[in-house]
Amino acid sequence: MVKVSIYIGTSLDGFIAREDGDISWLDKANQNVTLGEDFGFHAFLETVNLIVMGRKTFEQVAAFDTWPYKNNKLIVLTSKRFEIPERLKKTVAISNTLNPIDLIKELSGKSIDHIYVDGGVVIREFLSAGLVDEITVTIVPIIIGKGKSFSGLLPEDLHLQHLKTTVYEFGFVQSKYKIKK
Length: 181
Hints:
Strand content: 25-35%
Low-confidence stretches: none
Number of helices: 5
Structural class: alpha/beta
Strand order of the largest sheet: 4-3-2-5-1-6-8-7
Domain Bacterial bifunctional deaminase-reductase C-terminal: 4-168
Distance between the termini: 14 Å
Order of helices and strands: EHHEHEEHEHEEE
Oligomer: single chain
Radius of gyration: 16 Å
GO molecular function: 5-amino-6-(5-phosphoribosylamino)uracil reductase activity; dihydrofolate reductase activity
Enzyme class: oxidoreductase
CATH superfamily of the domain at 1-11 and 48-148: Dihydrofolate Reductase, subunit A
Organism: Candidatus Nitrosocosmicus franklandianus
Largest sheet: 8 strands, mixed
CATH topology of the domain at 1-11 and 48-148: Dihydrofolate Reductase, subunit A
EC number: 1.5.1.3
CATH class of the domain at 1-11 and 48-148: Alpha Beta
């Protein structure tokens, strides 16, 4: 069975981005983070066989100075045509399979046992389909007032089992949960 995880940062009031998709508030908050601290993200990526995200998230991440996913395979879910930057063509593919259940079926038998989903729309779709097993959320000490949440409106409540919380000296708090099924 494929394990599906979310690894996300939010403002204290639960938003992953402003209403227009802007995440510059994260850059400002990260100025207080100890140099080299990655909140366990690279160790997490070592456990992941595949990353799945939507086009908007991909385009935002692809514009970063440094590609954060190293050599991890990544699938971009989109209904629109777009070009993958040349430097990423070896590890990034595009899929028009927008239904997460269909995507998981497509991937079965391909030696994939841990998927990391990222991006608001894709996260909501995987949560709504009941496919997510674990959520790691890092709360950034900022209130932005309004924006986009990673869960959005779900068809039903999701009950969680707390696994671990780490408090960082610069005010970030990271908690890991298992979704009870």
